[in-house]
Predict the structure.
Amino acid sequence: TNQQSEEASVTPAQFLLQLDLLHREEGAGLRTELAAVMAALQPAQEAGDWVEGWRTPRQYLVPRQRPEPCDLWGVVQGQGTTLVVELEEDCTAYWPEVGGREQYGEVEVACLSRQRLGSYSLRRLRVGEREVALLQLVTPPAPLPLLSLARAARSAGGREGRALVLGQGAGLYTVLDSCLRQLRARATVGVATMLRKAAAAGRALVTREEELSLLLTTLGEAVCAG
């Protein structure tokens, strides 16, 4: 299967040509690609409120629906998570103010610090006895903010464990981050393969033309930036 995935991937130059063709076709190309992804969708292989990582090794933990704060921090505590990525701005009920601490069920969360860094913020939290980095997008999702967030996540923590990703764009973000990893490691782009592989495992990570367009455009920005 690894060989098939590599064969389905393209070089950065080929990806940019494909992206240019999609733009020329306006919405038709996006609709065709999205239809192919949805055609691959199969019943979920795993039940429950949380979607496990969809590739090996499992790098992400994504809720099917936005969880209650107690459920969120219970999962962070139970899974040993050290990195949370939040893609929506209006979610202040999920953590205390800087210097404060709150009890969420059986888990105590303290906010140690917050830094605003352009289009995202970085909070350092103590969840139980563990320090957790929480990166939050504070601007509307767009190519450069998403790239900045993904790059910050790589240096903020979570290298050894799975990142927990929240928000409506969580599926898009996980595919983007996986594609960026592949681009760095093998100098190839396999976005279509990743989307269809996830769909075959019961996870439609991108379901709207606008999401797919944003994902592809963001990857195009990354390729052009080298």
User: Anything to note?
Assistant: Strands lie at 50-51, 60-63, 83-86, 101-104, 107-117, 120-127, 130-137, 163-166. The helical segments are 2-8, 12-24, 27-39, 69-79, 143-156, 170-186, 191-200, 209-225.
